Amino acid sequence: MGNVAEVIVFLISGAIVLGGGLGVILNRNPVHAALSLIASFFGVAVLFISQEAHFLAFVQVVVYGGAIVVLFLFVIMLLGVDRAEQVRVEQLSMQRPLAIVTGVMLFGLAMGGLFLSGPGGEEGAVAATGQQSAMVPIDETEPNVRQLGLDLFTRNVLAFEATAILLTIATVGAVVLVRNEGAEDLVVDEPGTSIG
Amino acid sequence: MLLNQFLGLAAILFCIGVYGVLTRRNGVMVLMSIELILNAVNINLVAFGAYQGDVGGQVFALFVIAVAAAEVGVGLAIVLLIYRNRRSIDVSEADLLQG
Amino acid sequence: MLALLAQTQVQIPEIVWSVLWPIVLLSIGGVLLITATSISPRLRVGSFPAAMTIVLAGASLVTLPLIWSKVRDGGGQLPVIADAIRIDAFTLLVTGIMCASLIVVSLLLDDYLRTEGLDGPEWYVLLLMSATGGILMAAANDLIVTFLGLEILSIAVYVLAALHLRRTKSQEAGFKYFILGALSSAIFLYGIAMIYGATGSLRLTDIAQFIASGNSAGLSPLTESSLLLAGMAMLLIGFGFKISAAPFHLWTPDVYEGAPTPVVAFMASAVKAAGMAGLLRVFIVAFGVVAEDWRPVVGAMAILSVVIGAASALGQDNVKRMLAYSSIVHAGFMLVGLYAAASGAAQTGTRSVVFYLFAYAVMSLGTFAAFTLIGGRGDQNHSLSAYVGLSRSNPMVASLLAVLLLAQAGMPFTIGFWAKARVIIAAANGENYVVAAVAMVAAVVAAFVYLRLIVTMFMISEPDEAGEAEASGAQLRISRSGLFALGIAAAATMIWGLFPGFGGDWFGEATRALLELR
Questions:
Q1: Domains of chain B, CATH where assigned
Q2: Phi, psi of C317 (to 5 degrees)
């Protein structure tokens, strides 16, 4: 049965994904955290392959592993590893308890969403999942990229164009923010407050 | 086909990410935690898409990756900006770095 | 290879360009603006970017009646580009709000940038594209487009909030807004994934159909699909953050205080209007059938927002923070309207929210325009004490601001009165007397906040403070463009206050467009 293989692949890559995720939030050293992030991304890519999403797995490795994590590492190195530790944010007071409460609530929401419906257990989520309105069925004989491309340029062509606007904004925004201007006569408001 | 397992995994990853965003005090780490959440979303989308035999889930996941890239770009730019201004002032106003 | 291309038949969706003018003008205009100013640095200085933005927004406004006549001929609904967006009266109304907001904010920004010595067509580029995102979000019939619109809108505003490169407070505000905003959009996205799983579609109309067919088969979504419920809850978190409704409002005061004031004007008017428009579109069109299920959550958010907002606004000494809390109260009022719409009074409830959107955009634009003018160089004069004796040093600004603040308080003969009255009437129609009563009490409490500011402005300063007050008044340099912007907003407040049906029944048409889709 292919099922056993599927389960084994899932267990191994799932462990990598979660281990990487925990590494990101537990490591004190930003470089180690970034490396854990890569591990997590690769685990996700393997999960994609096991779900027949080949192109997405490829994009996951190239864009996430290749571009985004490198960007992270680049910024960490630019700041200096010990310095990067110091770019801190003070978001809210009572942060940790609030985080735990929020985390637990969202976890409850996410898991409850899965398992409370229907007769419960494994069948529950299946019963909850609508199947009727799938519009572009996956065809096993067609290459994955081609199906994605067809869907992208017919059903989602507007979203594709909207992504162009989004990327323009991100480029303009990033460039204009780090442009070296005005560092000489910086106004510091109320030192020690807010982000600090 | 595994569906619930994928969704459960995504839910755990999601919560790890949320916890990270709310507790990490380092700007770069917060951005990494946000990436974890977006990955959890992608796992969900692909699993649902495969379950329903709809390619739409994968297409949405592509958009999510594009958005994640844009967000990281802008987020890191803001982090750099803040860092640079702190450095240029940390001689005179060292206490801004603590707090 | 060629053979493969030949056998592929791609059904490219038909695109009706003639109804997409606002989106095309604003987004392409933004790209052209950044290109032109990069090629010719001479265009960077002076008022060219502001003028171009105003022309683009004005041109988009002009196209609206033309598009409306097309839409009306098409039966009130035009699905465009493979049904990814719907051009209808609601979309056009929100487009109008976006364009008006762009015009007013550009008028303010032009002078603001000059006094602050900042340079930048980029501010306008980001504004233009952000407005495009808002329009997409209001028009979307597809959750992908809703999400992308939300991101376009927000990412541009994160940058704008941090873009005062010489003030650390602005950057810190931008960063805080970014982190919490990114978290909320990630949660929003997770919600979309769950809804996709539960219904098998991302199109709002298909989702509605799917849920309705389940309903008619006697399946209650509450018991059958907790996946759908969890998804809706997460969408509410995402939208609640954007419209700064409690309990997702924690960022609002800090960000409003730190961000450049013209940008705050944009955040309060355009971002909030777009967020609320997206919320209406998604929850009324897609989830209108299961209103019973999301109604209690919306009601709780509404009550929390009005109560927390009004109570916290009382203790503020910084006017920007004060108005930040007041914006939370206003978000609560819109949610009261939505709650009414969900509990039986679909028509009046939806209409009241649509009207409130417009009214709040007008009032907040005007109020923050006045704050920009009074804030002066360095964007500093935002403490209550800076407003002492303003009526004597700058009677014009003080009286216009007083009109706008009275409107926010819900004074009769202003737009704010009709907005609040309609929401409360709708709540009463839906027999939500408790919510209506809480909202009214909160409105009275919030009115004290505005009155306090007005009284401060018209207070004759005490002798020992007189020198200081006169000094702050004398420094005030009121730009003509800023005063013009303030004047427009105040005039609109009065016009729609005296004639709430002015300019035709847009609000009714927009409501009909939303409700017809269900």
A1: 4-97 (1.10.287.3510)
A2: -110, -10
Q: Are residues A25 and A87 in the same domain?
A: yes
**Is B84:C165 a contact under the CB 8 Å cutoff?**
no
ipTM of the complex: 0.89
- pTM of the entire predicted model: 0.89
Question: Domain of A161?
Answer: 140-178
* C466, pLDDT greater than 60: no
Which of C200, C211, C215 minimizes the C-alpha distance to A129? C200
Q: Report chain C residues whose CB lies below 8 A from the CB of B40.
A: 190
Distances (CA, A) of B43 to A8, C170, C276, C360: 17, 36, 29, 39
Number of domains in chain A: 2
For residue A118, being part of any structural domain is answered with no
Residue A119 falls inside a structural domain: no
CA distance, residue A25 to nearest chain B CA (Å): 5
Q: In the listed set A91, A112, A129, which residue is the last one of a domain according to the structure? A: A91
Same domain for A8 and A69? yes
Q: Nearest by CB to C183, which of B21, B27, B82?
A: B21
**A87-91, C229-233, C276-280, C461-465, range with greatest mean pLDDT:** C276-280
C248: which chain B residues are within 8 Å (Cβ-Cβ)?
none
Of the candidates A93, A75, A4, A3, the residue with the CA atom closest to the CA atom of residue A34: A75
A42: domain CATH number?
1.20.120.1200
Q: Which chain C positions have a beta carbon within 8 Å of B79's beta carbon?
A: 175
Q: Where are the domains of chain C?
A: 20-502
Cβ–Cβ below 8 Å for A128 and C228: yes
- With CB atoms and an 8 Å threshold, state whether C172 touches A170: no
Query: What residues have CB less than 8 Å from B94, skipping those under 6 apart?
Result: none
Distance from CA of A5 to the nearest CA of C (A): 25
